[in-house]
Write a structure and sequence with these properties.
heterodimer; A: mainly alpha; Arc Repressor Mutant, subunit A; 2 domains; two-stranded antiparallel sheet; two-stranded antiparallel ribbon; 4 strands; B: alpha+beta; Dna Ligase, domain 1; D-amino Acid Aminotransferase, Chain A, domain 1; 8-stranded mixed sheet; 20 helices; 40% helix
């Protein structure tokens, strides 16, 4: 199995994550921060990505970068002969997606006396129940990720990142469920976007 | 019959047996309101199915008998080449599990029956549109993911038949790829639809929902089978949802959405541009009058504001669901006070209907009526409250900009993918969709002010346009999720619109408790509750 080239990994991470800083590119790709940054600079020289300063400190795709990503990702999919497997994985992902959104809603809100109220996380038993359901969903998501990673190795990062978010949440870092930029929900949404882009499905 | 009950006024079983939705339909019958003819397969049949994995013995025969009765009553035949009968098959448990289970519309519209419907109505587009809806709802149910018929369902003047036929073939292809087919035998379709609705009780998603909401897994759902009424029949048809009073403020005016020339769940999905309910009064005055009468009767029955789902076919109203309105916050306070004033409920009942939780939400801010606000656009208020922030036109921009201060997310419409942006924003504005759209539901769930259905609002890459003006991303705006106003800048805001009602309610509370000392509002209410609910 060939390792995906870092340039495409970095370019594609911006396509799936939007405008993000070097640290998030590194997390998304599995590269070190210095490797990610040097790749970003090379891509900027080619006019494919651009750096937003002025206190933002994030990188984003240019129009040319978006077009180049679409082309290279399509090439990668076809040359790996992975379209059928990724399509099947995407279908299984879509079965899980509404449930994930339900769980995020249940994490953020609960009904008290018939009034939807923000979950203030003052009731550990409720939080534990919701996290238990997240863990159950995650067990069913794992084989889908494995199937995708077998077709295209770069999908393997999502498994690592999802597991990491859930571990942190379980050990008390509650922001890793829906709030943090490395939260379960954020990583999941990036996987969703990645599948759409990879298969060339318009949103 | 053991497993099936007709839906009619004399049906006596409780919601535990019939499910809440079918029980609501029985209530509508008792009130003399128009409900499409039908029957319900009971919750017990579902429990038997869940235990054994197949429909219980005898149900097949009972379905055939009930179907025969329906055919005799309507003079139509399921799957018939002439005067075909079409059915809706919907889930309905005794507890609310919104969006978790399946609905199948236009069941029985086989290729042959659709041709019959086209010949009968002289409208082949209508018949194809209805068959497409049947196939896509059935396919969604048996495959387990949404099958989007997409734009092919828009009823447009140039809604050409080739496009509909193409969409029908696409759904049939999709089913084949999944190794599934829909039987051409209409009676067998009905059995399969009931099985499918029962099976949807046990999807992993429904299982998770019950775990989160303390609902027993062995409860089961009923399956409601009714004669179709077609909101897509012609320009004098449509579908909608209505509250008897405004759920945002409690004001005694009907409130809701209507969608002309469309069928089924298009209103709830928010994918389609709904119109304010009031437009029904101009376009279909007879339907409007019948609906207002129905809302009043249902409200009288529940002694509470109510919610109904309805369809009208060629100028004739049909009710498909009814339940109490479940108002909260300022709307709940105003509703309870008004109902007591109208002598529908007593003052003691009014007090018991308001929980201290409602008081937290009662002082919802509004753009002050006297403010000289520069109104950029008006839509439908979908979640009360005022938000002030800079315009962001994408989820990414909202997340990025929120670091530096509050953001108002402005989108054509939202999908689950916008959750990060919705979470990051202080307020939400959408061009399309009504008060039950995805954006509205999420906004209310998050307690964020929202304005939806802003007609004429355009959203570009980094600017928004309305009323001939264009403003850039980053422009400061103020939105009022009660009135639906979107104003430029930050006009004056007020929080005392429900004060008069709240003051009266709390005076009743003090009269009950006999304590007239200075205390906060929740304590005054709790003291009254302690007297009214001893122990």
């Amino acid at each position: 199995m060939t390792r995906p080239n870092p340039s495409l990994l970095v370019l594609h991470s911006l396509r799936c994550c939007g405008h993000v800083g070097v640290a998030r590119v590194a997390k998304a790709t599995g590269l070190t921060e210095s490797a990610a940054e040097s790749t970003l600079i090379d891509l900027a020289v080619d006019g494919l990505v651009t750096y937003l300063g002025r206190g933002f400190d994030v990188w984003g795709l240019t129009d040319a970068g978006r077009a180049a990503d679409a082309e290279r990702i399509a090439d990668e999919l076809e040359s790996a002969g992975a379209r059928t497997a990724v399509t099947a994985g995407f279908r299984r992902f879509l079965l899980l997606n509404p449930e994930l959104l339900d769980l995020c809603a249940a994490w953020q809100l609960r009904s008290v006396d018939g009034v939807m109220t923000a979950n203030d996380h003052g009731d550990p038993s409720y939080d534990a129940r919701v996290l238990g359901r997240f863990a159950d969903l995650d067990r069913r998501a794992a084989p889908v990720c494995a199937e995708l990673a077998a077709a295209l190795p770069r999908f393997g990062r999502y498994r690592t990142r999802l597991a990491d978010a859930l571990d942190r949440a379980a050990s008390g870092a509650l922001a890793y469920v829906t709030d943090d930029v490395a939260s379960y929900h954020t990583v999941w949404a990036e996987l969703h976007e990645d599948l759409l882009v990879t298969l060339g499905i318009p949103r | 019959m053991r497993w099936i009950r007709p839906i009619r006024a004399r049906t006596e079983e409780s919601a535990e047996t019939l499910g809440a939705k079918a029980h609501g339909l029985v209530v509508l019958h008792r009130l003399g309101l128009p409900v499409p003819a039908g029957f319900v397969v009971t919750v017990e049949a579902c429990r038997a199915f869940l235990r054994t994995g197949r429909l219980p013995d005898g149900l097949g025969g009972e379905l055939a008998t009930a179907l025969g009765d329906l055919e005799a009553a309507t003079g139509r035949r399921l799957g018939g080449a002439r005067a075909p009968l079409a059915l809706s098959v919907r889930s309905g448990a005794s507890v609310s599990m919104p969006g978790m289970m399946n609905t199948i519309l236009n069941l029985g519209l086989t290729a042959e029956a659709s041709a019959g419907l086209a010949a009968e109505t002289g409208d082949p587009r209508f018949a194809l549109n209805s068959r497409l809806r049947f196939l896509s709802t059935f396919a969604s149910a048996i495959i387990g993911t949404d099958v989007e018929p997409g734009e092919a369902l828009e009823r447009k003047p140039r809604d050409d038949e080739a496009r509909l036929i193409g969409a029908i073939e696409a759904v049939e292809d999709l089913l084949r790829r999944h190794g599934r087919t829909i039987p051409e035998d209409a009676g067998r379709q009905l059995e399969l639809a009931v099985e499918t609705v029962f099976s949807s009780w046990d999807t992993p998603r429904a299982h998770t929902y019950r775990e989160l909401h303390d609902i027993p897994h062995d409860l089961g759902t009923a399956a409601i089978v009714q004669t179709m009424v077609y909101g897509n029949r012609d320009d004098r048809s449509g579908t909608g949802v209505a509250f008897s009073r405004d759920p945002g403020t409690g004001e005694d005016v009907p409130f809701g959405d209507v969608l002309f020339g469309r069928q089924g769940d298009d209103v709830v999905s928010g994918r389609s541009t709904t119109r304010p309910l009031r437009e029904l009064a101009d376009r279909e005055p007879a339907v409007w009058t019948a609906l207002i009468d129905a809302l009043s009767r249902v409200e009288g029955h529940y002694r509470d504001a109510c919610y109904v789902e309805f369809t009208f076919q060629t100028g004739e109203l049909w009710l498909l669901q009814a339940r109490p309105g479940r108002f909260t916050g300022a709307a709940a306070v105003r509703l309870a006070t008004d109902l007591a004033d109208e002598r529908v409920i007593t003052r003691h009942e009014a007090l018991l209907r308001i929980s201290p939780r409602h008081l937290h939400h009662v002082r919802t801010p509004r753009i002050a009526a006297s403010a000289q606000a520069d109104i950029l656009a008006r839509g439908v208020g979908a979640c009360p409250g005022v938000a002030v922030g800079r315009i962001a036109t994408t989820t990414d921009a909202a997340v990025r900009m929120a670091v530096d201060g509050p953001v108002v997310l402005v989108r054509p419409e939202t999908s689950p993918h916008d959750m990060r942006g919705l979470a990051a924003a202080a307020g939400i504005v959408t061009a399309r969709g009504g008060p039950a759209s995805h954006a509205a539901v999420v906004a209310r769930a998050m307690g964020k002010p929202a304005v939806v259905g802003v007609t004429g609002l355009t959203v570009d890459v980094a600017s928004v346009g309305a009323g001939g003006r264009t403003v850039g991303e980053g422009t400061l705006v103020t939105i009022d999720g009660t009135s639906g106003e979107v104003a430029l800048g930050s006009p004056a805001v007020t929080t005392d619109t429900a004060d008069a009602h709240l003051r009266r309610l709390l005076a009743w509370a003090d009269a009950v408790s006999g304590d007239h000392s200075e205390r906060d509002e929740a304590r005054r209410l709790n003291a009254a509750h302690a007297v009214l609910r001893p122990g």
